[in-house]
Amino acid sequence: MLRASPRSRHLFPRTALLLALGSLLLALIPLSAEVHAAQRTGKSWSVGEPGHRRDGVSAVVRLDDTQGTVTLAAHKGATTVLEPAPVGLVTKSADLTSGLRLISRTTRQVAERYSMTTGKQLRRTFEATESRFSFSGTGGARLDLLVRVADDGVAYRYVLPGRDGITVLREASAFQLPASAEAWLAPYTANYERVFSATSASQAADGTYGYPSLFKVGGTYALLTESDVDGRYAGAHLVHEQGSGRYTVELADPEVTSPGPLATPWRTVVIGDLATVTESTLVDDLAPASRIRDTSWIRPGKVAWSWLDGFAGAQRSLPAQQRFVDYAAAHGWPYSLVDDGWKTVTWMPQLIEYARERGVDILLWVHYSDLDTAAERAEFLPRVKQWGAAGLKIDFMDSDAQERFRWYDDVLRDTARHELLVNFHGATLPKGIQRTWPHVMTLEAVYGAEQGNVPASNITALPFTRNVVGSMDYTPMAFQFGTRTVSDAAELALSVVYESGFQNFAGSVRAYRDRPELERFLEQVPTVWDESRLVSGRPGEEATFARRHGDRWFLGSVTAGPAGHQDVPLDFLGGGRWLVEVVRDGDAGLVRERHVLTRRDTLRVPTAEHGGFAALMCRQAPGRDTCDREVSRLPLTALTVTPDRIETDPGTTVEVSARYAVEQAGPAEDVSLSLGVPEGWSVEGDDPRATEVKTGGELTGRWKVTVPPGAADGGRDLTVTAQYRAPDRPGADALRVERTARVYVSPPGVDHVSSLPFAEERNGWGPVERDGSNGERDPGDGGRLTLRGKSYDKGLGVHAASEVVVELNGSYQRFTTVVGIDDEVAGKGSVAFEVLGDGRSLASTGVLTSADAARGIDVDVRGVQRLTLRVTDGGDGVDSDHADWADARLHL
């Protein structure tokens, strides 16, 4: 088990000045003798980190004078981390992998200071030695090899003049690991959503592997990745043949084009002990500086994310989204994210306004193809900005091709112009993008919680692999979803162990409320850090991190293995006494324990199987019994209306009741309930009021509503409004929340199919839904039946292949309905509808897609005993085949 030690990457100003002067003199010294010697005999050149420590990082470039080939190796002190491996590339006009001659070599010192909006360390210092090796190839073709060496790694790139444009066919670039090196690798996919597995450099199976790839050579680690990839080039991955320690770079495209001079991405190796690797910012250090001058609008933070608590159905429900907004407001979380499905609703501006009144900003999911042209971006981005959305989650790019990186360039420029924050899903790996575009809060590129079964070994590998190179949207806290592989305390620890500018917490409101100590810790934990330290760990086994925000430290630990205990040295703390509050697994749930310790002490914490813990630390002071800080919060309230659906006849009276409850963070003050009814309808009952409703308290109301005798058939809303004030916001406007009871007035002489029992039913995905769309797998998770913007109160929501059988017994004359693909699938799906009477086809539509208008069906069913409503797929598979039998009526 590796135990990390503190380290500093900052040089004293005088040392830095001397190094800079020395490098300048080096650059000015004529190198003709060195170059001539290399041409005669072949030669190696060493590039060392600033300071040239004996145990430091260095790279060795060697030119073979016989073949004219160039190789690069990397060392950490006396350890050869990377053995010599080829460099060079092939363009359409030149083979720059052999026949090379050295023209010149210059060396300079790189020193940069910059700040980030996200990440493991907000303020950065980067110091490196850079050597430029200029080579001439066959026919005078020019290739410059830039090599940078810092105290945490080596990187190199190619620079080609190419005034008339360049087409790169392939790179010769490769990394040669010692055959016995331990390895943690994930198979390559363009969305990087694969599990990391332990193997060795030579025994890894034949195939392609994604960045970052981690190796251990003796006591030194090497993390392979790339930096500064944009539309000038394509992304890359590694190709390996079993039995060899060589990993060759392969581009995502068969060729890459540049209209002029080209600087390729940095082939990057983070080198050092495990602490150096995990704390490294080398990938960002190599990237271009920020292209956004004013970053004051960029605000990382915690996000309430509802997707894993209802999927698309929850995204189409205004009450469900308001519930997550209310939870965020009650716990000081600044954001709530509405995922795929919302684009078929009309209430998004209403939700955004509702959230802003409560101090919460809304983030919106969008498919990348909705933004893949300038015209689409020019229409969509100003519209959601005008609504008041704070940012976008952009999904399904699924490509490392140059064309896709050009799209990244365009969408990042345009979202920055509109001051919209960005979270990329289905995305490439972070390759310095968060330095260049600081409004990028996080990227997925991980086998994350959405998979529902992430092994504990992968959870403990990610801090040493994927998360090293940039923010990682793993979406933790999904207690209600999938198969749990780590304990509650370990899941909580991921809020510290994993770094992400947006922490999209994926729990349900009930799951959070069932874990009050978890709620309390999540209120306090930030999403950006002034300092990060690896305390201990080993990939796939254990990860314990300490991260500082201001004057408080947060500690997170997760393990993959049997129950036991963690011994955590506290030498990262400052002097004096510290209050340490630990949240760990107990016999009946999460428990909190307090200790007063110093940096000389070791914290011992019992852990469950695949367990862990989270902790918060602050300086001890007289009378202090917690490290918690005040959190801005509003009461978490719930308004329910019973019943929410009513079917009745003209001239009848129905009863409606409402319950307003304060669940957390009360009290609510000046509370009132009222009921609004359609014009011409009458209501009896008083509107209740209360000066105060405390946490755990409620206010209820009951009304009788009379439907006019001449009321036309169809649906109407009865609207209950709760109005209240929050004590923490004196003088602010009252808050309002509305819920509805939908009353459907039935026409005479009609039975709705959705109100009858089914003799038989089968459905391609989830149950047949009565009076709602198919939604997802669970009953009742769909929305209103909606075809081309028109909603229907009654009908069936199904998914191909589907069949519903109803016994008619010869009692009806006609069957009428309106059919089509439900709007909830947003342009997808294709199905065919067929109506059968006693096995005989009465009507069929042929294939209908989302682009087709809704189709009316009217058939004679006199004498029919069994009516069958059948939906088949349109011949292209059943993906998104959400079909509606809207307003399906049987006429007596």
Describe the structure.
The chain is globular, with a radius of gyration of 32 Å. The chain has 14 helices and 60 strands. The chain is mainly β. Helix content is 14%, strand content 43%.
Question: What is the fold's blueprint, element by element?
Answer:
Layout: E1 2-3, H1 13-28, H2 32-41, E2 43-48, E3 57-64, E4 69-76, E5 79-87, E6 89-91, E7 95-96, E8 101-115, E9 123-136, E10 142-150, E11 153-160, E12 166-171, E13 174-176, E14 182-185, E15 197-200, E16 207-209, E17 213-217, E18 220-227, E19 236-240, E20 246-251, E21 256-258, E22 262-263, E23 266-272, H3 274-279, H4 282-285, E24 301-305, H5 311-315, H6 318-331, E25 335-338, H7 348-357, E26 361-367, H8 374-387, E27 391-395, H9 402-417, E28 421-424, H10 433-436, E29 440-443, H11 456-459, H12 488-497, E30 502-505, H13 509-513, H14 516-524, E31 531-538, E32 542-549, E33 552-559, E34 564-569, E35 578-586, E36 589-597, E37 602-607, E38 612-619, E39 636-642, E40 645-648, E41 653-664, E42 668-676, E43 682-684, E44 689-693, E45 698-706, E46 714-725, E47 735-745, E48 750-752, E49 760-762, E50 769-770, E51 785-787, E52 790-792, E53 795-799, E54 802-807, E55 814-821, E56 830-837, E57 840-849, E58 855-860, E59 866-873, E60 882-891
Parallel strand pairs: 24-25, 24-30, 25-26, 26-27, 27-28, 28-29, 40-47
Antiparallel strand pairs: 1-31, 2-3, 3-4, 4-5, 6-7, 6-12, 8-9, 9-10, 10-11, 11-22, 11-23, 12-21, 13-20, 14-15, 14-17, 16-19, 17-18, 18-23, 19-20, 31-32, 32-33, 33-38, 34-37, 35-36, 35-38, 39-41, 41-45, 42-44, 42-46, 43-45, 46-47, 48-60, 49-54, 50-53, 51-52, 53-60, 54-59, 55-58, 55-60, 56-57, ...
Helix pairs in contact: 6-7, 8-9
